[in-house]
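Researcher: Please translate sequence to structure tokens.
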Amino acid sequence: MMSHETLERRRLYFNHLNTQKTEEIGAPAEIPMAPCCQYQDSYLGAARKHHKPKVPSNSPPVANASASPATVRTGSKEFLKSKSLVRNRHDEIDWVATFLNVGFDPSSIYALMCPLRKGRWKVEEENYTLGLLRLIESGTILLRHGQSIRGYIGEKLHSDDMRVLKKLSNCKIFHFAKLINPRLAEEEKLDMNVEGAQEVLDRLEQLKGEFLRSVQLEALVAVRKYLSDSSLRDLLNMRE
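Model: Translation complete:
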């Protein structure tokens, strides 16, 4: 066995060697950052640099935005001239019957009053959409130049474009839609020369009616909001 003195001499010798190596090497070298870490640090740095605290806004969320009473009042004057307008025995507008007549057509006052539809799809809405797609596919419905299929469907459903896009992309029954090469014209129109066009259009009208009945409560709630404006209410109950 080694004596205590021998062990002490060895300890001092190794300490001396370690001191020399440290002086030769100097401070530990900086470990290079992996490329992904550099990117992440750069990204986070930029985010911190350009980050601004959120400022509370007095404007309502876009999703809840709808036409102002003034805009609706202007549209109401045209609405009163519509042949689709239905009045009850008290000579007041029958909002349910009128909605089932005109729906969300762009010229309809409901297109102004009702916010774009969002959320879960109704079965009636899916059936109506399928009917529209089949007529576009057959060439019975011609879209206007520059109009997309999802834009056309969105107008008919009074729905947010992205909501329509997600449905057409993710639902199996609509997968054929991406293969449709629609016929185009200067304006939207129907080609009644397509074989069986009238029969299919009659069926589409039924599907549209079922869809409108399924969403009529939403439309009436939106109408009630505007009818709290007495001047608009009086205007709409006038005869032209």
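Researcher: Any highlights?
Model: The chain is about 55% helix and 5% strand.
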